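Recap from last week: sequence in, structure out.
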Amino acid sequence: MHALLLPVGLCLPLLAGDDAGDPPPTTGTYRRASSEEMLAQPGPDLGGPLVVGEVTIPELEIKRYLIYGPGRAALEFRRVNLLIDDEVARQQEFGVRGEMREPEDFGVPLEDYDYHYHHKLEDFRTNYPSLDIPTEISRAYRTLTWYRHELHQQFLFDQVFLPDDFTEWPDVSKEAIREQADQLWLDDFERQAKVREEKYQEDLANWEVLTAAGEDVAKPRPYVEDVMFRSILRQMVRDTLYSFTDTKTALHGLPPELVMTVDLDGDGELELSLETEDVWQDVAPTVTQAEVDDARLFLAKIEATRQRLEKEGKMLPAEDLERAVAEALGGFKDNLFGGIGMIAVGDHRFPSMESYGDYLVLHECHKAALEDQLATPEGGGLPELLQGHLDRANKIMGLAKVDAEVLLVGAFDEAHMVWRADGWSKALQKATRLMTDIAKNAAEYDVEKQRKVDAAMAGEEYTPKSDVMSSDDYWFRMLDDHCEFWDAPPPANGKMSAVTYKQKGRFGERTRNDMQGLMGESYFTQFLTNKSACDEVFFDLEPGVVSGPIKGPKGYFLAKVKKRLPPRSPLNIRDERYVKFIRDDYLRYSLIGYADEALKMATVKGLEGNTNLLD
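Predicted structure tokens:
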């Protein structure tokens, strides 16, 4: 393996410092924050170790869970740096197309970095003048500092693997695109690069003419290709490089003190070994107390369920369990954009593949324990366990829809990306007060209606004594005045898809899975808390009546179902494929209740005051 040289600007560990800090330098190594600076930005209170039965879960496990989940960018940043350094070392030793590369060939000039960084910010300000840039960056990158570092790393990655001059691409980049797309992508990149260069040279010639004539005009800069196209190319190359490496995390049995190891060429020698405590120093200042509560509850529930399975004799033997989990993962390695990774982290919204791996152990044992009861009867059809689950599965997978209006009273301020002080108690108080106001208005309106009827029966003209709104009108105004769902404004230039817009809680006709996403829930949140505000709205609420408060992941909901539509594509239980879908859904759904019972049965210390356990 190549020695990991430190060429210009390539060693850039994350700095847990001021979000308005200076951009990364272009020479040397990036200084790590001092202990005094780290103390100035403390992380959240992790709450000490968890104790479930006789098992202690140390804070180190909680830290690692948070690194894999909300702090994943810090982990991937280090791994991508390793790929860059290794390729730089290779190019310095072997060159590209026979031409040797020197250390000064690598690095991002500060002028270029500043130009692109400020250009991106100015472009954002132009398109979204009402939005706060640090807040919006934090939605995707958690902090402005992390964004600045990742942007700098992208420039370095592109310079090494995807330079504008196509002839300088290393073979691994070309093969990655050919393998995951086809030669047309490479041809298209080369063609676009030539067009951009010709346009730039034309602009440059015009600039020289103007400056020679004494005009003060800014020197043109080279054109760059479509940002999305470049991002796709970058992801293809990264995925290919990852497929060559042997990367291990907790998913592969690393002990708690290690968060990741990487063997670049499979020779058994580690080029990267990351300690949990080291990475935690970068992650800690970005972690919220709510994320700590999620981590503690998840780890406690996993351990309590494991103990229950073991006590009931339902834990699979180690060898069988390893095989079952491996089959369920289906050869998953690093790609989150397909297969089990897309289901676990994408659809079900688990924080990481590592947390999904912990869950999968329980799922496979639960599945094996119910195997006989879920087997298809000799005569065909559904086993008894699934018959009671059919209606629910049919509405979800058969694409039934519900037209509902949902008012959110937030404990979390979505517009500013912060948890409010005493947010949960204040949200509950406000939601309760709104329900009282709704009931009061309905009662007053009923009185007015009765007075109008009485007057008509007496042949008298009725003059309302008070300005009382109908229940529908009052609810409509409530949504306008109090609903805290947040939608980004459309860009000043161009259009934005409104598919996921929440429109002050006026969802319209939605399938259950669509509604679940709009309400900020997922299978993971349901497994974590044994609650689903979406399911209560979708399956249970009486139409035409405002109900609540119903607790959700980030606040309390009031909801009104306008109408329900039957399944558009009912499941055919005579088709074994559909029976399998129903069986899989039942296993997931029933495990939620089983795990919650396990937690309640266990002796647990360390969940006192956990916000997830609030009524």
